[in-house]
Amino acid sequence: MSLAAKGSVSCYFAREGSSDEGLIRIIETTLYSLGYDDVNVVPLRKKGTVRTLLKEVFSLSPGCSLVFVHRDSDNVDRNERRNEIEQALIGFNLSSNQEIVPIIPVKESESWILHALNDEEYAERVGFSEVLGLPSRKDIPGLRNAKEELERLCAVRDEKLCKGKRRRRGAGFSSHRRNLFESLDEIDYLNDCLSFKEFYLDLSSRLF
Question: Taxonomically, which superkingdom (predicted)?
Fold first, then answer.
């Protein structure tokens, strides 16, 4: 066991872009599900290579025991992104109680929201229960652009809420996405999502 189970945990989150900070909610939810009762995720609000971001983390907190590194898989295999992160770790001389955990949605962070929207309870909570045209869970990993698909669905929902009044496509999308991430407070919403399952199993194997 590399990290103490239960109690409190503080960690850093090195994200790919500012729009991916919603993943903090998923990290928190996952850590709570693993038995922690006090979770503090510190976002590193800086862009750069994985190695540059890790250097920044360890300059801020040399003894930091847990760091999440986010990379969307985009159009390459998830394992390739994982290898990129592992290569970036060469030369850091981490101690046995320091863990760097990849978080790699396939293909984009928004894919995990689309996956959750297939859960009836989550869809009801966020007002998507009557939105038609949602891609099925099996089709989501193959979407060309999950962000555009989620934006389209948000526009459809807004159209329904406005009772047919036209709204400019994309208006308020950043806020919509932030709220959708914030509502991901149950890992059950991501059942059968392979890339989340791999993240969950990887994290739990490091903590216990």
Answer: Bacteria
- The rounded Cα 208 to chain-centroid distance in angstroms is 21
Which residues in the chain come in under a pLDDT of 50? 1-2, 4, 170
Longest dimension (CA), the chain: 59
DSSP state of 146: H
Span between the terminal Cα atoms of the chain, in Å: 5
Q: What angle do CA 58, 108, 175 make, to 5 degrees?
A: 90
Residue 123 and residue 129: Cα distance in Å, rounded? 5
pTM of the entire structure?
Answer: 0.89
Residue that has been written with the tokens 């932030």 in this structure: 178
Three-point CA angle 94, 98, 102, nearest 5°: 100
pLDDT tens readout for residues 167-180: 555 458 999 999 99
The total of other beta-carbon atoms located within 10 Å of residue 107's CB is 22
Q: By the 8 A CB rule, do 4 and 35 touch?
A: no
HSE on the CB side for 84, CA within 13 Å? 17
168 phi/psi in degrees, rounded to 5: -65, 125
What residues contact residue 201 under an 8 Å CB cut-off, 6+ apart? none
- Is residue 13 within 8 A of residue 43, CB to CB? The reply is yes
